[in-house]
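Progress narrative, Year 2. Work on Septin from Equus asinus advanced from sequence curation to structure prediction during this period.
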Amino acid sequence: MYLYLILVKLVFIAPVCVSLQQKRENVRSLAMGGHVGFESLPDQLVNRSIQQGFCFNILCVGETGIGKSTLIDTLFNTNFEDHESSHFYPHVKLKAQTYELQESNVRLKLTIVNTVGFGDQINKEESMNMVIIDAQFEAIALALPTYHDSLCTYHSHFLYSPLPQKDAGPLKMKSVNVIPVIAKADAISKSELHKFKIKLMSELVSNGVQIYQFPTDDETIAKINASMNGHLPFAVVGSMDEVKVGNKMVKARQYPWGVVQVENENHCDFVKLREMLICTNMEDLREQTHTRHYELYRRCKLEEMGLTDVGPENKPLSLQETYEAKRHEFYGELQRKEEEMKQMFVQRVKEKEAILKEAERELQAKFEHLKRVHQEERMKLEEKRRLLEEEIIAFSKKKATSEIYQNQTFMASGSNLRKDKDRKK
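Result:
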């Protein structure tokens, strides 16, 4: 069983046009004296729109191989020749491709953005983080070039629950229209499909997911839209293969036990889905995204910046008053930051001075120690020198005494020899 949840949104770069409600009782109705020509304004608008063409962008979110490309091909009756993606991407990335389509004299610039590698990782919790709708809104607010999703198809593959808890969170986004669609509806019986629809809608409501309701304020489409709101979620089958049924070729899926026709409302709700999304309510989806979702995002963004239209006591404030209040707040914050930086600088200077003084004290103590050691060594050397000089003097005295004694001995022995010679004569 598979599930498509279709999120529809469009963002315009043009500024918001707010229509002022005028009191009907104060407006005078006048009759003109002749033809003026402003009756052609609708024709001018249509001609200008046809000349400029239209843009439609689709963001496809879902696991690889779940049937995203087949659904888009079937919706637009075109083979976009999208190459199959691998299941081994380490991260999710966005792949955008733009095509030019033309039906009669209406040109459509279609951009298909695919989430390559979505749900193929072991940890699937971060898969949806790659699809950031608010980032596109912010790019619009900053007037940056970007693509703006007109239709976001969310494809969820589940086995036990129609709406997994990990998928419920992203669907609660207030910046997109949500339309639930059950894909590959030919995989289950009609009774199981009916039970599954009820369970899916129940889980969407219990998880706080707001479903887009087709508008019923236009009398021309109110009846069909009210009827289609009761058919949600749509159960569809997608296929570009043509099979011969009777005397004509139809888009269908061929099975050994029979044929499932894509455009047969007795087989699936694909025709209802295409009629509601493209033929009937595409402009309303675009307008809802611009006037509701983008404006809600812009309001929240301005409130985050502190730019509100009411004061602390719920009194209305002008833009100038809000600006001055915010400027005063920022100025006070700036002064506080400057004071903190000054205090931090003074504290760091004191800490550095203390470190330098401690290093200086240690160097001085080391110098004094080395000086004392040097002095002690010098005194020891002086003492050894003095003792050596005393030993030299004592040795010299002993040497002189010894020489005198030797001379005396030599002279005495010479005198005795002469006396002996004289005696022998």
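The chain is about 50% helix and 15% strand. The radius of gyration is 49 Å.
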